[in-house]
Amino acid sequence: MEPKVLIMGPPGAGKGTQSTRIAEEYGLEHITTGDALRSNKEMDISHLDAEYDTPGEFMDAGDLVPDAVVDAIVAEALDSAGGFVLDGYPRNPDQAEALDGMTDLDVVLALNVSRAELIDRLTGRRVDPETGENYHVEFDVPDDDAVRERLVQREDDTREAVENRLDVFEAETEPAIQQYHDHEGYVEIDGEQSPDAVWSDIDAAIRGKVEGS
Ligand code: AMP
Predict the structure, then answer these.
(1) Domain limits of the chain?
(2) Distances from the Cα of 174 to the Cαs of 108, 133, 143, 168, in angstroms?
(3) Which residue's alpha carbon is nearest to atom 2 within ligand 1?
(4) Is 125 a catalytic residue?
(5) Which CATH architecture best describes the domain 4-28+82-211?
(6) Beta carbon of 37 within 6 Å of any ligand 1 atom
(7) CB–CB of 113/102 below 8 Å?
(8) Model pTM?
(9) What are the DSSP calls for 37-99, one per residue?
(10) Which residue's alpha carbon is at the smallest distance from atom 6 of ligand 1?
(11) How do the pLDDT tens digits run along the chain, 213 residues long?
(12) Nearest atom, ligand 1, residue 165 CA
């Protein structure tokens, strides 16, 4: 079974954690625009004549990187993928339309989490620069003192950038999610549960959609 899975939801909903698990358990390619862009923060995109000349500047402000850049990343990744889980894209209705022209999806997961919970999760998130592992100042403190001392906050997890990212989500990404409401693979998942409970709902949803089709 190599389903084509899209996972959508606001920043901080747990898309990264859950999509990593989906990819592992189902043996799927994990395609994530956030990670792809973080590895290409300094890319010269001045030819697009947008507000900034590199992806990193959009990201640090919590704004969306221009569609042309992300559409190309996803098109190239999908080209070589069989089954996949796509995370972080599409983030606006135009990207949803572009994706529609690239592939057919089997499952569309929409993770729901309240804004207040997202702010707590994101502003408290810290990253280990050596391993890339995520922690949280309250909910997930590392046992190892050395790890705790080297944790850093992502530039876009500051309060100001987080508020902006959530505003961008509500204005641009929510309308894109709406477009999938009538998709036969569409399932809403309660993202406020524990990661294991969310996983269990996701696993059941994927099996239900793939076996039911
Ligand atoms: P993420 O790790 O998914 O929260 O993405 C981090 C940042 O990368 C976002 O705040 C955007 O600046 C940028 N980004 C990721 N995916 C996209 C996308 N599909 N369209 C535009 N910008 C994106």
Answers:
(1) 4-28+82-211
(2) 14, 28, 37, 9
(3) 34
(4) yes
(5) 3-Layer(aba) Sandwich (3.40)
(6) yes
(7) no
(8) 0.91
(9) HHTTTT---GGG--S-SSHHHHHHHTPPPPHHHHHHHHHHHHHT-SSEEEES---SHHHHHHH
(10) 34
(11) 799 999 999 999 999 999 999 999 999 999 999 989 999 999 999 999 999 999 999 998 889 999 999 999 999 999 887 899 999 999 999 999 999 999 999 999 999 999 999 999 999 999 999 999 889 999 999 999 999 999 999 989 999 999 999 999 999 999 999 999 999 999 999 999 999 999 999 999 999 998 876
(12) 10
- 59 CA distance to ligand 1 centroid (A)? 7
Catalytic, out of 15, 21, 126, 209: 15
CA 213 to ligand 1 centroid distance, Å: 31
**What's the CA gap between 96 and 70, in Å, rounded?**
12
Tokens of 110: 């929409």
Q: Which of 207, 55, 193, 205 is CA-nearest to residue 114? A: 193
Tokens of 63: 């704004």
Token pair in block for residue 119: 């702010």
